[in-house]
Amino acid sequence: MLSLRSLAQGRIIPILRAGIPDVVGSDADPVERALQALQQMLLRGVRRLAQQLRSPTDVAPSDGGVEPASAIFSQVKELCIEPIDGVLDADEHVFSLFAGPLHLANLLLSITYLVQP
Amino acid sequence: MFDPITAALIRAAPALDGLDLEGLPKRLTSAFADIVSARIRLRGEAYDRVSPELTETLNELRRLAAAHEAYVALLPERENRAAAAFVAASAHQTCMLARSRTNGVSRIDATTVAPEVCATLLFLVAEANADAAECAKRIIPD
Fold first, then answer.
1. pTM of the model
2. Which residue, of A64, B27, B67, B118, has the greatest Cβ tally within 10 A?
């Protein structure tokens, strides 16, 4: 939350200096652990976005650069969506979603369009 | 409430059935005024005493925010993405005016994202950076 607030206020350095908290231990509720893992990835994406804002000339990952924030947010999106088979007919699909992190990843992905060359 | 450039941005939002885009800047301004005057009138009284008219205004704003936010989230490459984002963020922000300040920390859980977080990010998508910075003040970290 603090990183999102800092991002909107243009305070990039605090985002880069802040640590990334650990995910709670394996004895915790699995949904809570999954949520924290997704939030941790989103935080990594926000930090990467902050780095891109500081230095917009990115080196492509294939040339030794680091992955862009958009790649991290896209990965979060994939992890938030899980198809559930065998519920409806074959041509109808049911998905299990982490709708909160998914929506946040979508909005953050929209912001990355502004920093892409 | 909106300068001519911002009003033009709002009018460029995606068209929706039953939504008067030409009159939308005025509608948002009028909703803002309704909510502010209700806040002054209520002054600390319970928010469940708001009038049916104001409840309808808030519901309309929530629908407006949800529809345009969905455009931004699901179709981020649309040309009028900035306009949709600005309309959604403004609608969220106007709704938040009607909310009590005692709602606690801003949350992202498995199914929801706090409206102040959505509004802030939507203003960033709209490149309305000053509005985003102002809206971010409502984000309360845990």
1. 0.86
2. B118
C-beta separation of B92 from B58 below 8 A: no
Task: Give mean pLDDT, residues A65-69.
Answer: 80
- Looking at this predicted complex, what is its ipTM? 0.86
Please report whether residue B141 resides in a domain.
no
* Domain housing B85: 4-136
> How far B37 CA sits from the closest chain A CA (Å)?
29
Write the residue in B74, B120, B135 that is nearest to A106 by C-beta: B74
Chain B: residue nearest A99 by CA?
Answer: B111
CB A59 within 8 A of CB A87: no
Q: Does the distance separating the beta carbons of B121 and A107 come in below 8 Å?
A: yes
**Greater pLDDT, B38 or B19:** B19
* Cβ contact B76–A101 (<8 Å): no
Q: For residue A53, give its domain range.
A: 2-115
What is the total count of domains within chain B? Answer: 1
Q: Which of A52-61, A99-108, B23-32: highest mean pLDDT?
A: A99-108
Alpha helices in chain A (DSSP H): 2-8, 12-17, 30-54, 69-80, 99-115
Q: B34 is written with which tokens?
A: 């309704």
| A117 pLDDT higher than 80 | no
